[in-house]
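Standup notes, protein team

Yesterday: finished cleaning the Micromonospora wenchangensis set.
Today: ABC transporter substrate-binding protein structure.
Blockers: none.

Input for ABC transporter substrate-binding protein:
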Amino acid sequence: MPLVLVLLAGALAGCTEPAAEARPGTPASCGPVTATVGDTDVTPLTPAPAPALPATVTSTDGVVTTVTDATRILPVNLYGSIAEIVFSLGLGGNVVGRDTSTTFPAAAHLPVVTPAGHDLSAEAVLALAPTVILADDSIGPPETLRQLRAAGIPVVLVAAEQTLDAVPGHVRAVAAALGVGAAGDRLVTRIEADIAAARTGTPTDAAPRVAFLYLRGTAGVYLIGGRGAGSDAMIEAAGGVDAGSAIGLAKFRPLTSEGLINAAPDVILVMSGGLESVGGVDGLLRLPGVGQTPAGAARRVVDMDDGLLLTFGTRSGQVVRALADALHCRGPR
Protein backbone atom coordinates (compact mmCIF):
# COMPACT_ATOMS: atom_id res chain seq x y z
CA MET A 1 0.00 0.00 0.00
CA PRO A 2 1.54 3.35 -0.96
CA LEU A 3 2.48 5.56 1.93
CA VAL A 4 0.08 8.29 0.89
CA LEU A 5 -2.93 6.03 1.50
CA VAL A 6 -2.25 5.98 5.23
CA LEU A 7 -1.44 9.63 5.79
CA LEU A 8 -4.99 10.51 6.79
CA ALA A 9 -4.69 8.44 9.94
CA GLY A 10 -2.69 9.11 13.09
CA ALA A 11 -3.03 10.72 16.47
CA LEU A 12 -0.83 10.71 19.53
CA ALA A 13 -2.05 9.44 22.86
CA GLY A 14 -0.76 10.70 26.22
CA CYS A 15 1.61 8.75 28.40
CA THR A 16 3.06 9.01 31.86
CA GLU A 17 5.34 5.97 31.85
CA PRO A 18 8.88 6.39 33.18
CA ALA A 19 11.77 6.49 30.74
CA ALA A 20 13.15 3.11 29.66
CA GLU A 21 16.80 2.18 29.91
CA ALA A 22 18.98 1.18 26.98
CA ARG A 23 19.23 -2.56 26.34
CA PRO A 24 22.59 -4.14 27.22
CA GLY A 25 24.87 -4.80 24.27
CA THR A 26 23.49 -2.16 21.92
CA PRO A 27 25.82 0.46 20.40
CA ALA A 28 26.84 3.24 22.75
CA SER A 29 24.87 6.43 22.40
CA CYS A 30 26.29 8.91 19.93
CA GLY A 31 23.41 11.36 20.24
CA PRO A 32 21.47 12.77 17.28
CA VAL A 33 23.04 11.95 13.90
CA THR A 34 22.23 12.93 10.33
CA ALA A 35 23.03 10.05 7.97
CA THR A 36 24.56 11.45 4.79
CA VAL A 37 25.85 9.95 1.56
CA GLY A 38 29.10 11.09 0.04
CA ASP A 39 27.64 12.10 -3.32
CA THR A 40 24.18 13.68 -3.38
CA ASP A 41 23.75 13.19 -7.14
CA VAL A 42 23.24 10.11 -9.29
CA THR A 43 26.09 8.66 -11.35
CA PRO A 44 25.10 7.93 -14.96
CA LEU A 45 26.49 5.10 -17.01
CA THR A 46 29.07 6.15 -19.57
CA PRO A 47 28.92 6.17 -22.46
CA ALA A 48 25.20 6.86 -22.54
CA PRO A 49 23.30 4.10 -24.36
CA ALA A 50 21.37 4.70 -27.57
CA PRO A 51 17.76 3.46 -27.27
CA ALA A 52 16.87 0.67 -29.70
CA LEU A 53 13.23 1.45 -30.49
CA PRO A 54 10.43 0.57 -30.92
CA ALA A 55 10.22 -1.46 -27.71
CA THR A 56 7.05 -3.32 -26.74
CA VAL A 57 6.57 -4.11 -23.06
CA THR A 58 3.75 -5.16 -20.74
CA SER A 59 2.96 -2.82 -17.84
CA THR A 60 2.24 -4.22 -14.39
CA ASP A 61 -1.46 -3.45 -15.03
CA GLY A 62 -1.40 -5.79 -18.02
CA VAL A 63 -1.46 -3.11 -20.74
CA VAL A 64 0.83 -3.90 -23.68
CA THR A 65 2.60 -0.68 -24.67
CA THR A 66 4.93 0.16 -27.53
CA VAL A 67 7.46 2.95 -27.01
CA THR A 68 8.69 4.49 -30.25
CA ASP A 69 10.37 7.66 -28.98
CA ALA A 70 12.46 8.22 -25.83
CA THR A 71 13.50 11.80 -26.51
CA ARG A 72 11.05 13.26 -23.95
CA ILE A 73 10.83 10.97 -20.92
CA LEU A 74 8.64 11.67 -17.89
CA PRO A 75 9.52 9.38 -14.93
CA VAL A 76 7.16 9.80 -11.95
CA ASN A 77 6.33 7.97 -8.73
CA LEU A 78 5.93 8.72 -5.05
CA TYR A 79 9.51 7.85 -4.14
CA GLY A 80 11.63 9.36 -6.93
CA SER A 81 13.18 5.98 -7.75
CA ILE A 82 12.13 5.87 -11.40
CA ALA A 83 13.83 9.18 -12.16
CA GLU A 84 16.98 7.91 -10.44
CA ILE A 85 16.96 4.90 -12.72
CA VAL A 86 16.50 6.91 -15.92
CA PHE A 87 19.27 9.35 -15.01
CA SER A 88 21.57 6.51 -13.93
CA LEU A 89 21.00 4.77 -17.26
CA GLY A 90 22.53 7.86 -18.88
CA LEU A 91 19.27 9.23 -20.28
CA GLY A 92 18.81 12.14 -17.90
CA GLY A 93 19.20 14.61 -20.73
CA ASN A 94 15.93 13.28 -22.21
CA VAL A 95 13.87 13.81 -19.03
CA VAL A 96 11.37 16.69 -19.26
CA GLY A 97 9.74 16.75 -15.80
CA ARG A 98 9.83 15.32 -12.31
CA ASP A 99 7.80 14.37 -9.25
CA THR A 100 8.18 16.14 -5.90
CA SER A 101 10.31 13.29 -4.52
CA THR A 102 12.96 13.66 -7.23
CA THR A 103 15.32 16.12 -5.58
CA PHE A 104 18.85 15.13 -6.64
CA PRO A 105 20.81 18.01 -8.23
CA ALA A 106 20.79 16.78 -11.83
CA ALA A 107 16.97 16.84 -11.88
CA ALA A 108 16.27 19.78 -9.57
CA HIS A 109 15.74 22.25 -12.43
CA LEU A 110 12.92 20.25 -14.05
CA PRO A 111 9.27 21.30 -13.73
CA VAL A 112 7.16 19.40 -11.17
CA VAL A 113 4.07 17.56 -12.44
CA THR A 114 2.82 16.33 -9.06
CA PRO A 115 1.75 19.52 -7.25
CA ALA A 116 -0.27 17.52 -4.71
CA GLY A 117 2.64 15.22 -3.87
CA HIS A 118 1.30 11.99 -5.38
CA ASP A 119 -1.32 13.19 -7.85
CA LEU A 120 -0.38 13.91 -11.43
CA SER A 121 -1.60 17.10 -13.04
CA ALA A 122 -2.78 16.11 -16.53
CA GLU A 123 -2.44 19.69 -17.70
CA ALA A 124 1.15 19.95 -16.47
CA VAL A 125 2.04 16.62 -18.09
CA LEU A 126 0.47 17.44 -21.44
CA ALA A 127 2.22 20.81 -21.48
CA LEU A 128 5.55 18.98 -21.46
CA ALA A 129 4.60 16.81 -24.47
CA PRO A 130 6.31 13.64 -23.18
CA THR A 131 6.90 10.82 -25.64
CA VAL A 132 6.80 8.21 -22.86
CA ILE A 133 5.68 8.21 -19.21
CA LEU A 134 7.21 5.78 -16.72
CA ALA A 135 5.28 5.38 -13.45
CA ASP A 136 4.03 2.92 -10.85
CA ASP A 137 0.83 2.56 -8.85
CA SER A 138 2.09 4.85 -6.09
CA ILE A 139 1.18 7.73 -8.40
CA GLY A 140 -2.27 8.67 -9.60
CA PRO A 141 -5.09 9.17 -9.85
CA PRO A 142 -5.84 6.24 -12.19
CA GLU A 143 -8.20 8.33 -14.29
CA THR A 144 -5.36 10.74 -15.08
CA LEU A 145 -3.19 7.90 -16.33
CA ARG A 146 -6.09 6.68 -18.46
CA GLN A 147 -6.53 10.21 -19.82
CA LEU A 148 -2.86 10.41 -20.76
CA ARG A 149 -3.02 7.04 -22.50
CA ALA A 150 -6.14 8.17 -24.36
CA ALA A 151 -4.14 11.20 -25.53
CA GLY A 152 -1.77 8.79 -27.28
CA ILE A 153 1.13 8.94 -24.81
CA PRO A 154 2.71 5.55 -24.03
CA VAL A 155 2.38 4.99 -20.26
CA VAL A 156 4.46 2.14 -18.84
CA LEU A 157 3.79 1.08 -15.24
CA VAL A 158 6.48 -0.78 -13.31
CA ALA A 159 6.19 -2.62 -9.99
CA ALA A 160 5.97 -0.47 -6.85
CA GLU A 161 7.47 -2.87 -4.28
CA GLN A 162 9.71 -1.00 -1.85
CA THR A 163 12.48 -3.47 -1.05
CA LEU A 164 16.14 -3.78 -1.95
CA ASP A 165 15.47 -7.09 -3.68
CA ALA A 166 12.98 -5.38 -6.00
CA VAL A 167 15.42 -2.73 -7.26
CA PRO A 168 17.01 -4.88 -10.04
CA GLY A 169 13.57 -5.71 -11.45
CA HIS A 170 12.61 -2.05 -11.50
CA VAL A 171 15.82 -1.16 -13.33
CA ARG A 172 15.33 -3.87 -15.94
CA ALA A 173 11.68 -2.90 -16.50
CA VAL A 174 12.58 0.76 -17.08
CA ALA A 175 15.52 -0.15 -19.30
CA ALA A 176 13.38 -2.48 -21.41
CA ALA A 177 10.75 0.21 -21.96
CA LEU A 178 13.41 2.66 -23.14
CA GLY A 179 15.13 0.17 -25.43
CA VAL A 180 18.36 0.01 -23.42
CA GLY A 181 18.18 -3.48 -21.95
CA ALA A 182 21.95 -4.09 -22.01
CA ALA A 183 22.54 -0.84 -20.13
CA GLY A 184 19.96 -1.96 -17.59
CA ASP A 185 21.94 -5.14 -16.95
CA ARG A 186 25.12 -3.09 -16.47
CA LEU A 187 23.36 -0.81 -14.02
CA VAL A 188 21.96 -3.76 -12.05
CA THR A 189 25.45 -5.21 -11.71
CA ARG A 190 26.71 -1.90 -10.33
CA ILE A 191 23.82 -1.52 -7.88
CA GLU A 192 24.09 -5.07 -6.56
CA ALA A 193 27.84 -4.63 -6.03
CA ASP A 194 27.23 -1.35 -4.16
CA ILE A 195 24.65 -2.95 -1.86
CA ALA A 196 26.86 -5.97 -1.18
CA ALA A 197 29.81 -3.70 -0.37
CA ALA A 198 27.64 -1.60 1.94
CA ARG A 199 26.56 -4.69 3.87
CA THR A 200 30.14 -5.91 4.25
CA GLY A 201 31.39 -5.14 7.73
CA THR A 202 27.96 -4.25 9.11
CA PRO A 203 27.76 -5.73 12.64
CA THR A 204 25.40 -8.67 12.97
CA ASP A 205 25.45 -8.79 16.77
CA ALA A 206 24.12 -6.16 19.19
CA ALA A 207 21.73 -4.99 16.49
CA PRO A 208 19.98 -1.79 17.61
CA ARG A 209 16.20 -1.86 17.72
CA VAL A 210 15.06 0.93 15.38
CA ALA A 211 11.63 2.55 15.05
CA PHE A 212 10.93 4.49 11.86
CA LEU A 213 8.52 7.37 12.45
CA TYR A 214 6.86 9.17 9.55
CA LEU A 215 6.25 12.70 10.81
CA ARG A 216 4.47 15.64 9.25
CA GLY A 217 3.90 17.87 12.24
CA THR A 218 2.36 20.68 10.23
CA ALA A 219 -0.33 18.26 9.00
CA GLY A 220 -0.78 16.38 12.26
CA VAL A 221 0.49 13.13 10.75
CA TYR A 222 2.40 10.77 13.04
CA LEU A 223 2.95 7.17 11.87
CA ILE A 224 5.19 4.26 12.81
CA GLY A 225 6.50 1.80 10.23
CA GLY A 226 6.24 -1.97 10.40
CA ARG A 227 6.67 -5.01 8.15
CA GLY A 228 6.37 -4.06 4.49
CA ALA A 229 6.61 -0.30 5.01
CA GLY A 230 9.94 -0.10 3.21
CA SER A 231 11.67 1.36 6.24
CA ASP A 232 11.96 -2.18 7.64
CA ALA A 233 14.01 -3.28 4.63
CA MET A 234 16.48 -0.42 5.02
CA ILE A 235 16.79 -0.90 8.79
CA GLU A 236 17.48 -4.61 8.43
CA ALA A 237 19.98 -4.10 5.60
CA ALA A 238 21.83 -1.62 7.82
CA GLY A 239 22.16 -4.17 10.63
CA GLY A 240 19.22 -3.11 12.78
CA VAL A 241 16.00 -4.72 14.01
CA ASP A 242 12.80 -3.00 12.90
CA ALA A 243 10.98 -2.22 16.13
CA GLY A 244 7.56 -1.89 14.48
CA SER A 245 7.83 -5.30 12.85
CA ALA A 246 9.02 -6.80 16.13
CA ILE A 247 5.72 -5.91 17.83
CA GLY A 248 3.62 -7.16 14.91
CA LEU A 249 2.92 -3.95 13.00
CA ALA A 250 2.46 -4.01 9.22
CA LYS A 251 2.92 -1.13 6.76
CA PHE A 252 2.29 2.21 8.50
CA ARG A 253 0.13 2.57 11.59
CA PRO A 254 -0.93 5.57 13.69
CA LEU A 255 1.65 6.32 16.33
CA THR A 256 0.55 5.98 19.95
CA SER A 257 2.65 6.47 23.05
CA GLU A 258 1.76 2.97 24.29
CA GLY A 259 2.77 1.38 20.98
CA LEU A 260 6.06 3.26 20.85
CA ILE A 261 6.92 2.34 24.43
CA ASN A 262 6.13 -1.31 23.69
CA ALA A 263 8.38 -1.14 20.62
CA ALA A 264 11.20 0.03 22.95
CA PRO A 265 13.48 1.39 20.20
CA ASP A 266 17.15 2.02 20.88
CA VAL A 267 17.12 4.40 17.91
CA ILE A 268 14.39 6.51 16.33
CA LEU A 269 14.79 6.94 12.56
CA VAL A 270 13.07 9.80 10.76
CA MET A 271 13.25 11.72 7.51
CA SER A 272 15.00 15.07 7.82
CA GLY A 273 11.94 16.99 6.64
CA GLY A 274 9.76 15.18 9.16
CA LEU A 275 12.15 15.97 11.98
CA GLU A 276 12.13 19.62 11.03
CA SER A 277 8.31 19.62 10.94
CA VAL A 278 8.11 18.75 14.65
CA GLY A 279 10.74 21.24 15.78
CA GLY A 280 13.90 19.16 15.53
CA VAL A 281 15.17 16.66 18.07
CA ASP A 282 13.90 18.65 21.04
CA GLY A 283 10.43 18.83 19.48
CA LEU A 284 10.48 15.11 18.73
CA LEU A 285 11.38 14.30 22.33
CA ARG A 286 8.37 16.30 23.50
CA LEU A 287 5.95 14.05 21.60
CA PRO A 288 4.09 11.71 23.97
CA GLY A 289 5.91 8.46 24.56
CA VAL A 290 9.18 9.35 22.82
CA GLY A 291 11.00 10.33 26.00
CA GLN A 292 9.93 7.06 27.64
CA THR A 293 11.87 4.93 25.14
CA PRO A 294 15.56 3.98 25.35
CA ALA A 295 16.09 6.07 22.20
CA GLY A 296 14.45 9.11 23.72
CA ALA A 297 16.32 8.81 26.99
CA ALA A 298 19.63 8.66 25.11
CA ARG A 299 18.64 11.19 22.39
CA ARG A 300 19.44 8.50 19.82
CA VAL A 301 17.75 10.04 16.79
CA VAL A 302 18.94 9.39 13.23
CA ASP A 303 17.57 11.45 10.37
CA MET A 304 18.16 11.13 6.64
CA ASP A 305 17.19 13.18 3.60
CA ASP A 306 13.61 12.65 2.42
CA GLY A 307 14.83 12.05 -1.13
CA LEU A 308 17.12 9.18 -0.10
CA LEU A 309 15.90 7.09 2.80
CA LEU A 310 12.94 5.27 1.21
CA THR A 311 13.69 5.86 -2.46
CA PHE A 312 15.01 2.35 -3.24
CA GLY A 313 16.70 3.65 -6.34
CA THR A 314 20.14 3.34 -7.84
CA ARG A 315 21.85 4.91 -4.79
CA SER A 316 20.53 2.23 -2.42
CA GLY A 317 24.02 0.95 -1.60
CA GLN A 318 25.11 4.41 -0.49
CA VAL A 319 21.97 4.76 1.61
CA VAL A 320 22.52 1.41 3.36
CA ARG A 321 26.15 2.30 4.10
CA ALA A 322 25.30 5.74 5.53
CA LEU A 323 22.43 4.37 7.60
CA ALA A 324 24.56 1.53 8.99
CA ASP A 325 27.26 3.98 10.04
CA ALA A 326 24.71 6.18 11.81
CA LEU A 327 22.88 3.30 13.55
CA HIS A 328 26.12 1.77 14.82
CA CYS A 329 27.78 5.04 15.87
CA ARG A 330 30.55 4.80 13.29
CA GLY A 331 32.18 7.45 11.19
CA PRO A 332 31.64 7.35 7.41
CA ARG A 333 33.44 4.48 5.68
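Follow-up from PR in the comments: The domain at 204-328 is CATH 3.40.50.1980 (Rossmann fold).
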